[in-house]
Protein: Putative NBD/HSP70 family sugar kinase
Organism: Primorskyibacter sedentarius
Amino acid sequence: MLSILPPQNTSPERAKSLNRRLVLGRVHATGEMGRAELSRACGLTIQAVSNIIAELVEEGLIRETGRRSTGRGLPATLYAINPKGAYALGVEVRPNALLAAVLDLTGRPVLTTRHALTDARPEAVSRELQALRLEMEQAQPEAVSRLLGAGVVMPGPFGTTGLSGTAADLPGWHELDARALFAEALGMPIDLDNDANAAAMAERVKGAAQGLDDYAYLYFGTGIGLGLVSQGRRVAGAFGNAGEIGHLRMQTKDGTAALEDVASRLSLQRRLAAHGRDAPDFDTLAALNAQDDAVLDEWISIAAPALAQAVHMIENLFDPETVILGGALPEGIVDRLIARMALPENSVSNRPGRAHPRLTRGECGRLTATLGAAALILNRAFSPQFAALD
């Protein structure tokens, strides 16, 4: 297993790890930079930057890309991330499928795969994960040999809580050490998170949240969840269950209802089924949207006001740069929801001179959470963890 970080047994080693992340993160965010630029941007000496760059080049994590003349002295040597220097695996567990993606160091997918699940209990998922690992080793042996680790995401909440037993739950997982099961099945260290948080990170690495440090992501999965990013880091909560917004009750024309009962993909599929329509997958929903389906339009008229109330809460609680909507709903449906969401004016986000709209559609598509699972690993590699110095 490849590691971007050196051993961290002493304070100087932890500081070195932090500085490597600073340099890697800045190069990743900017595209290509020279030593002097990195020194200024990271607040490090030229010598410190030169030493870190030499190590990263030797390890294959960054590469020289050319020279840039500054008008004085020798042209500056430029460095960029080496896409093949390392890879990250993302795995998403859904009630009916296991999805996986391998991303290179720039966040580009080099492999995506989907395994149907007829049984989502832990033992069955473990067997599928082992088969998935073998499949990836055969398809992308070089990438698998240079994996930094795996991010695994699944619907929350984690552990037995007052929210357990909802329709979006996976059976048999609440009393289980899921992290240990995934690490053993995949044979590598893992990060475990809920699908909404992972989707939020995907948009930061390769989507609508690039360049943003504080934003919220409303994720349409089987249910509906909220991913929060503050100062570039996901907000997980004490037990990994922050963002379970789908269970909050919203005002509807018929009283109140849980948000995911009126605005999730599952709620749309149930409404369609009540009218004798089967829409089991993403492509079927996209086709219905293209046909201006009347039942779909009715669902949008109910879902949009409920989502607007949820966004109003999110804005006043967290003051995000924007609220992104996306996930396992076709882009056309998300666009129609956004167009019908009348956001209240009494919000901290309703201010002049905004750099970003209050609502933004996500750009990572149906694999957002899968890509986000891998993005959890990349974000850890590129983002300084200042607590490591304590």
Q: What stands out?
A: The domain at 85-202+371-380 is CATH 3.30.420.40 (Nucleotidyltransferase; domain 5). Residues 25 and 357 are 26 Å apart (CA to CA).
